[in-house]
Amino acid sequence: MAVDMEHVRRPARTAGAAAGVLAAGAMFGVAHLAAAILDPPASPLSSLGDTFIDLTPEWLKEFAISLFGTNDKKALLVGMVLVIVVASGLIGVLALRRLGWAQGVVVALGAVVGIAAASRPQTGQLALVPSVVGAVVGALALRWMVRALVRSPGAARTGPAGGSGPRDAGRRVFLGTALATGAVAVLSAAAGTVVAGARSTASAVRNLVLPAPARPAPPVPADAQSPVAGVVDVVTSNRDFYRIDTAFTVPQVDPDSWRLRVHGLVDREVTMTFDDLLAADLVEAYVTLTCVSNAIGGDLAGNARWLGLPVREVLAKAGPQAGADMVLSRSADGFTASTPIQALTDDRDALLAIGMNGDPLPAEHGFPVRMVVPGLYGYVSATKWVVDLEVTRFADAQAYWTARGWSEKGPIKTASRIEVPRTGTSVPAGPVDVGGTAWDQHTGITKVEVQVDDGPWQEATLAGQISIDSWRQWSWRWPDATSGDHVLRVRATNADGVTQTGDLTTPFPDGATGWHEVSVFVQ
Ligand SMILES: Nc1nc2c(c(=O)[nH]1)N[C@H]1C(S)=C(S)[C@@H](COP(=O)(O)O)O[C@H]1N2
Ligand SMILES: [Mo]
Q1: Is the peptide bond before 509 cis (omega within 30 degrees of 0)?
Q2: How far apart are CA 506 and CA 509, in angstroms?
Q3: Are 391 and 436 in the same domain?
Q4: Ligand 1 atom at shortest distance from the alpha carbon of 386
Q5: 385 lines ligand 1 (CB under 6 A)
Q6: What is the pLDDT along the chain (523 residues), one digit of tens a residue?
Q7: How far does the centroid of ligand 2 lie from the alpha carbon of residue 97, in Å?
Q8: Buried b vs exposed e over 393-413: b needs ≥16 C-beta within 10 Å?
Q9: Which of 172, 199, 226 is the last residue of a domain?
Q10: Is any ligand 1 atom within 6 A of the Cβ of residue 339?
Q11: In angstroms, rounded to a whole number, what is the distance separating the alpha carbons of residues 399 and 377?
Q12: Probe target for ligand 1 pocket from 54, 62, 122, 244, with the most ligand atoms within 8 Å of CB
């Protein structure tokens, strides 16, 4: 009897699981297409991903970033798909015994995903609809496939000795329903992607012609690039620029309907349009952005030429009131950063940027408008897709990361790294060229030193300085590397004469400290 049951159930169970997974595919595909038509950010996978990111506890996020780096979103996507496949497979198996319950679970899950979508800041009033429509289609597809399975006498009701004729016929019916469901899943997902792509800001980014700056950036000195081959480009291309944000899918903000609202502790509210920005006197400046999560020697930093309107001019129009000490900037997707008002009103080039290295901001770097503030880590200043500035007080409001325990103030710490030679590589004995990059935005770097093993600190040659807001490259010739294992260490000194500390700390809560070192083998 037991053996018999095994024979009866095993194929049906697999088929049930397959039906569950296919139904989920149809559910997500149809919901994606419906969202692309009604409200693209309401697509279920992206709103699930965004919700997951916002709910992730700090330790898990740190762990994910340490494991996957800037591929954390791809990793999350793979993880979500795996969870959905397993869960829907189980629902499919449940459907073999309790079809009604399984359908109920599908519709309930659709409602939960719909609620997640509707609670995202960038979705509109119809955000619940796509997931619910998808879930209804998924539940119907599940019913259709499971009915075919259960009706096929060979597959579900009789043992292996049962007649092969009816069993094959039943299987064919099931296969037909499964194929049709799979086709619905694939075609609707593909159509949704095409429609969402057509509605994206890609063409707006392409078609935007940037105005000439009223105040161009001074030219890059001819010697700004370290002469050592292999050191990063001193101006980072838009393609190579690191990307860090909480957005699972890149927010699509239409420049024509973009508005920046300035409010809070101000004498008068100000609203700006994108055309207002284009018509303003724009300035251009080289500014190096750095992420607070950057590890010692890490690559979460980039230097670009930004074009934008000084934030202080917009604030001046609104007239900040006495007592305000912070500006809470908010993005279209609900991210917030709390920036000391001082850094936005002094004479530095804190910008509402619309251009990056001569091009409109790429969508993933904040199109159409982002903030760039020299000297502060991105999490407290560099809001992409910015739509709102609230003049307020640190005592009255928290921002996305500060509410999660990161420091309220995020001045960038002096940092330096060795880019050549790379750690773990071997180099020939004799003279070895060493090079890298150091930064202390809005103060500037005036000295870089290198140490071999426990020898004396030796002064490197600084490359030309683009601006005190940009990083600065350096080079040093190791005169006579002798064969064996060696450690090279670097430290920088800023224009205030303060040398970077060698004390090792983690990025949390306000940025890592410590000297970068590389281990090399000299042949
Ligand atoms: N809307 C939005 N803006 C954001 C973030 C974000 O998550 N959402 N992350 C900030 C952080 S932590 C950093 S380091 C910088 C990174 O900017 P980039 O991706 O252009 O390099 O963007 C900042 N601006
Ligand atoms: Mo960051």
Answers
A1: yes
A2: 8
A3: no
A4: 1
A5: yes
A6: 333 444 444 558 999 999 999 999 999 999 999 999 999 999 999 999 999 999 988 888 878 877 887 788 899 999 999 999 999 999 999 999 999 999 999 999 999 999 999 999 999 999 999 999 999 999 999 999 999 998 765 444 444 444 456 667 778 899 999 999 999 999 999 999 999 999 999 888 889 999 999 999 999 999 999 999 999 999 999 999 999 999 999 999 999 999 999 999 999 999 999 999 999 999 999 999 999 999 999 999 999 999 999 999 999 999 999 999 999 999 999 999 999 999 999 999 999 999 999 999 999 999 999 999 999 999 999 999 999 999 999 999 999 999 999 999 999 999 999 999 999 999 999 999 999 999 999 999 999 999 999 999 999 999 999 999 999 999 999 999 999 999 999 999 999 999 999 999 999 999 999 999 999 999 9
A7: 49
A8: ebeebebbbbebebbeebbbb
A9: 199
A10: no
A11: 14
A12: 244
CB of residue 248 inside a 6 A radius of ligand 1: no
Task: Quote the DSSP letter at residue 519.
Answer: E
pTM for the whole thing?
A: 0.92
**Radius of gyration in angstroms for the set of CA atoms belonging to the chain, rounded to a whole number:** 29
Cα–Cα–Cα angle for 364, 368, 369, rounded to 5 degrees: 95
Report if residue 128 sits inside a domain.
Answer: yes
Which strands form 386-392's sheet, in the order they lie side by side?
Answer: 270-273, 259-264, 386-392, 326-331, 336-340
Nearest CA to ligand 1 atom 18: 243
User: What are the structure tokens assigned to 337, written together?
Assistant: 């950063």
335 lines ligand 1 (CB under 6 A): yes
Of all protein residues, the one whose alpha carbon is nearest to atom 4 of ligand 1 is 383
Residues 336 and 480 grouped into a single domain: no
DSSP string, 406-418: --S--BPPPEEEE
- Is ligand 1 within 6 A of the CB of residue 378? yes
* DSSP alpha helix (H) spans, 230-346: 274-279, 311-318, 341-345
Q: How far apart are CA 483 and CA 427, in angstroms?
A: 9
- Ligand 1 close to Cβ of residue 293 (< 6 A): no
Nearest CA to ligand 1 atom 12: 379
Separation of CA 378 and ligand 2 centre (Å):
5
Helix, strand or coil, per DSSP, at residue 358: coil
How far lies 281's CA from each of 118, 208, 310, 357, in Å? Answer: 39, 17, 9, 18
The last residue of one of the domains, among 382, 404, 426, is 404
Q: Domain tally for the chain? A: 3
Considering the domain architecture, whether residues 138 and 184 belong to the same structural domain is answered as: yes
- The residue to mutate among 248, 354, 384, 404, having the most atoms of ligand 1 within 8 angstroms of its beta carbon, is 384
Q: Residue 51's domain spans which residues?
A: 5-199
